[in-house]
Specification:
The chain is of the alpha+beta class. The protein is built from 4 helices and 10 strands; from the N terminus they run E-H-H-E-E-E-E-H-E-E-E-E-H-E.
């Protein structure tokens, strides 16, 4: 049932927004201001906080969600926390629905979430693909930046998606 002329679409999502790094820089400056206001001579705690801010900035820089739509199915990788990834063959998909999500409210945050009712991979955006598998009670939810491009792959593979976007 899979069309052999199916093209491959790859989507990479990163947390490389400028406002995030500006936030880290502002926190470092505020930390220094607090130390100068209270005339604290020992800068070891300040140094530790700046190092921790830099550590989190580097972690946020290397975090990426990669979703590859191929002729056979979907490969999801969430680096560095879930590097092996998840493989979903098209023949195991019962249904696929486009949904609008609020990651903080709906799932408790961005990133990878493994809950009893769903497994979530959301890094950016408010559009997601909810995939119900034939052999699992758990749905897989994938954040998508360009739903129209990912939807084309499903259409070409003969697996239409339902649209619940509002």
């Amino acid at each position: 049932m899979v069309n052999q002329t199916l093209t491959v679409y790859k989507e990479n999502q990163r947390l490389d927004d400028l406002y995030l790094y500006l936030l880290f820089a502002v926190l470092c400056v505020l930390d220094l201001v607090v130390y100068r206001i209270y005339l604290i001579q020992d800068l070891s705690i300040f140094t530790m906080s700046v190092v921790s801010f830099l550590f989190f900035a580097i972690i946020f820089f290397i975090i990426r969600l990669q979703v590859i739509y191929s002729q056979e199915g979907i490969r999801i990788r969430f680096f560095p926390f879930y590097p092996k990834g998840k493989w979903i063959p098209f023949h195991e998909i019962e249904s696929a629905t486009w949904i609008t999500v609020n990651p903080l409210k709906d799932f408790g945050g961005y990133g990878y979430r493994n809950k009893p009712q769903h497994e979530v991979f959301v890094l950016r955006g408010r559009k997601a693909l909810q995939i119900k598998l034939k052999n699992s009670k758990k749905a897989v939810i994938i954040g998508v930046l360009f739903p129209e491009k990912a939807g084309e792959i499903f259409q070409l593979a003969g697996y239409p998606t339902k649209n619940n976007l509002s």
